[in-house]
Amino acid sequence: MPRPTCSRCRRPLSHCLCALIPRLDSRTRVLILQHPDESGHALNTARLAALGLVNAELLVGETFGDALAERLADPAYSSLLLFPGAQAERPAPQSAEERPLQLIVPDGTWRKARKLLYLNPVLESLPRLCLPEGLTSRYRLRKAPQPGALSTLEAIVETLARLEPERRFDALLRPFEALIDGQIAAMGEQTYQRNHGAGHE
Fold first, then answer.
1. Is 201 part of a structural domain of the chain?
2. Nearest alpha-carbon partner for 173 in 185, 164, 161, 162
3. Other CB atoms closer than 10 Å to residue 114's CB: what's the count?
4. Is 177 helix (H, G, I), strand (E, B) or coil?
5. Residue 72 belongs to a domain with what CATH number?
6. What pLDDT, on the 0 to 100 scale, is given for residue 62?
7. CA–CA separation, 154 vs 140, rounded Å?
8. Is 10 helix (H, G, I), strand (E, B) or coil?
9. What is the DSSP string of 5-59?
10. Which residues contact 193 (CB under 8 A, 6 or more apart)?
């Protein structure tokens, strides 16, 4: 029999994260495009980002058609894709005089995120932002596919902090860290150290 689950954070009621999820304002709108394979993961960081930001939305699918076109056509925002690329620029502080940004964030493994771009060609035409190399993930349960790789939530927090340095977005990481601590507690400290501890390759 399945355990009762919170309808908001999708965690078991005994491990509900809602009390830790903030409601933060941002001038930047965040639109997360989540591959369906990610939506059922226990560590669904994109959902935490969408719940914690007032000006954020999570769409789940492989092709987004009219829903994506409608959001990209909104004249109130200038849209950028958060994804590496040859012409990608680093996030920089935005002034109040500039049109607010709409940050489009693909959520999935690198392979699935690239597939989202392929299946939604309009994304390929957007200017890109990417974070600098050398950042360290707090995601202690999964080896990063490459140095500097962050979870979706961490990448959003880091990007917003650079776009809007006058605001603080660290509170978005509280449920994420609690989620990881809970997973480590469930597996046991010895198992965690053996499989994920310092020096583990």
1. no
2. 161
3. 13
4. helix
5. 3.40.1280
6. 96
7. 13
8. coil
9. B-TTT-SBGGG--GGG---B--SSEEEEEE-GGGTT-SS-HHHHHHHHBTTEEEE
10. none
**Residue 119 pLDDT grade (very low, low, confident, very high; cuts 50, 70, 90):** very high
**Residue 63: closest CA among 129, 121, 125:** 121
Which domain covers residue 83, as residue numbers?
21-188
The dihedral sign for the CA sequence 70, 71, 76, 77: negative
- What is the model's pTM? 0.87
> What is the model's pLDDT at position 199?
43
Q: Is residue 111 part of a domain?
A: yes
* Rounded CA separation 84/129 (Å): 7
Amino acid at 171: A
Domain annotation covers residue 27: yes
Neighbours of 60 (CB within 10 A): 16
Q: Which sign, positive or negative, has the C-alpha torsion 25, 21, 135, 36?
A: negative
Asked, for residue 43, whether it belongs to a domain, the answer is yes
The total number of structural domains that make up the chain: 1
